[in-house]
């Protein structure tokens, strides 16, 4: 099961857990209130998993690829790691399914505090368009993930501040409605 928590303010190694002391856990319900959707799947059988096929059909995830993030596998590794960790948003949902390894997705809560979501093999996450987020490897320095898209992939990340985009405005409207 996925684990999430509020992060400390430390600027040290981004790959460290950065838990508050004492730990301040975040529930799946709290993540859902931010529009974050979590699923657990069978990563050992992703090629034939009927549950994954059903998700792809139901959500219209027509495009996918697999990325391996490791210093020996990803060209421009150090540059990519820095880019992934810059706070940004996308104009479309971001869907990632961890096939092997582990890493962290960090998302902003309604009060603009960082929540760290620990992702490992079998975890699938959907981050809604317009949410500020970032990604980093954990101390294992390796992840293999499936990236899913509706239609053709759009890789553009808009670094913060990006509050004028319709996707951000729509996301903020969603948060306001969730608060009522």
Automatic annotation (TrEMBL):
Major location, coarse class?
membrane
Q: What class of enzyme is it?
A: oxidoreductase
Q: How does it sit in the membrane?
A: Peripheral membrane protein
Matching entries from Pfam families are given as: ARD
* Alphabetic keyword roster: Amino-acid biosynthesis, Cytoplasm, Dioxygenase, Iron, Metal-binding, Methionine biosynthesis, Nickel, Nucleus, Oxidoreductase
Q: Which reaction does it catalyse?
A: 1,2-dihydroxy-5-(methylsulfanyl)pent-1-en-3-one + O2 = 4-methylsulfanyl-2-oxobutanoate + formate + 2 H(+)
Task: Kindly state one GO CC term assigned in the UniProt record.
Answer: nucleus
According to the UniProt entry, its GO molecular function terms are:
acireductone dioxygenase [iron(II)-requiring] activity; metal ion binding
**Where does this polypeptide localize?**
Cell membrane; Nucleus
UniProt keyword annotation of Cytoplasm present: yes
Q: What name does this protein carry?
A: acireductone dioxygenase (Fe(2+)-requiring)
* EC code: 1.13.11.54
């Amino acid at each position: 099961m996925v684990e999430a928590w509020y992060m400390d303010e430390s600027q040290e190694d981004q790959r460290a857990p950065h838990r508050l002391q004492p730990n301040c856990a975040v529930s799946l319900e709290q993540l859902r209130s931010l529009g974050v959707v979590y699923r657990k799947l069978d990563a050992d059988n992703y090629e034939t998993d009927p549950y994954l096929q059903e998700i792809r059909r139901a959500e219209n995830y027509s495009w996918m690829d697999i990325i391996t993030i490791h210093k020996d596998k990803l060209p421009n590794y150090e540059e990519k790691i820095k880019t992934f960790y810059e706070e940004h948003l996308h104009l479309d949902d971001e869907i990632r399914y961890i096939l092997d390894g582990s890493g962290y997705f960090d998302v902003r809560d309604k009060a603009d505090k960082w929540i760290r979501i620990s992702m490992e093999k079998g975890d699938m996450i959907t981050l809604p368009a317009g949410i500020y987020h970032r990604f980093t490897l954990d101390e294992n320095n390796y992840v293999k993930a499936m990236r899913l898209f509706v239609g053709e992939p759009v890789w553009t990340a808009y670094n913060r501040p990006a509050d004028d985009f319709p996707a951000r405005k729509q996301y903020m409207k969603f948060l306001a409605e969730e608060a009522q």
